[in-house]
Specification:
By secondary structure, the protein is mainly β. The chain is built from two helices and 14 strands, in the order ββββββββββααββββ.
Length: about 230
């Protein structure tokens, strides 16, 4: 279960992702820079390995979203963001067939829920549409407020999920610019107001040598959307 919001910007894009899990599941680990056979990637992870969102030094990102089209089927959607081509792709596996869809380069959201997926999608989508009217729409602060929202009511349908057996357990924020990538992370429900702290990778000298450094909440503040980027 989760909610992913994609926001294009003048020089790249932003992703916000609430990870929703059962309370009994082991807590995830914060983002770290990893060398994957010559590729540099940044992502949070499960204690035993694996991740739900990642971005690499080429500025491409992937996010894994559970999907509940049928009962007892381990279906999923994989989102791919490729800024060089302004491509936003979605692969969907329903247990029998893998399909791929291409989306426009504009604000979008994906939501999943093992409790009531259609209801969660309607509720969170309505909250997103109202939020887009704000002057700060698209900024990092706006994205954080959206992902800690309890509208219309705190519970299974709100963006920040609260159920007796499960809820939002972390928030991950990816901010991609022309020459750098930041990944921020909040352990626990984002409604607590904790600011993301994470990792940045960047290429400062025009070479392929990427340097990593920790980021503070102040370093992860960016302006709102440029005109014309919301459809």
């Amino acid at each position: 279960m989760c909610t992913v919001t994609f926001v294009p910007t003048a020089g790249g894009y932003r992703l916000g992702m609430n990870r929703d899990e059962r309370h009994a599941r082991a807590a995830g680990l914060p983002p770290a820079v990893r060398d994957l056979e010559g590729r540099v990637a940044v992502f949070p992870s499960e204690p035993g390995g694996g991740t739900w969102i990642a971005v690499n030094e080429r500025r491409a990102a992937f996010a894994l979203v559970n999907w509940y089209p049928l009962a007892r089927v381990r279906a999923f959607r994989l989102l791919g963001v490729f800024p060089a081509a302004r491509a936003l792709l979605e692969w969907a596996w329903d247990g029998r067939r893998l399909r791929c869809a291409s989306h426009g380069w504009d604000v979008r959201q994906w939501a999943s829920s093992g409790y009531d997926e259609p209801g969660a999608q309607r509720s969170r989508g309505a909250v997103l549409r109202r939020a887009l009217a704000a002057p700060s729409a698209g900024s990092c602060d706006w994205l954080r407020r959206l992902h800690r929202s309890h509208r219309p009511v705190r519970g299974a349908h709100s963006t920040c999920v609260h159920r007796a057996d499960a809820g939002t357990v972390s928030y991950t924020e990816v901010e991609v610019e022309a020459r750098r990538v930041r990944v921020g992370y909040v352990a626990g429900p984002p409604c607590r107001g904790t600011q993301p702290v994470g990792v940045e990778i960047g290429c400062d000298d025009g070479t392929a040598q990427w340097a990593a450094r920790s980021t503070t909440p102040q370093a992860m503040r960016s302006p709102a959307l440029p005109a014309g980027s919301v459809r």
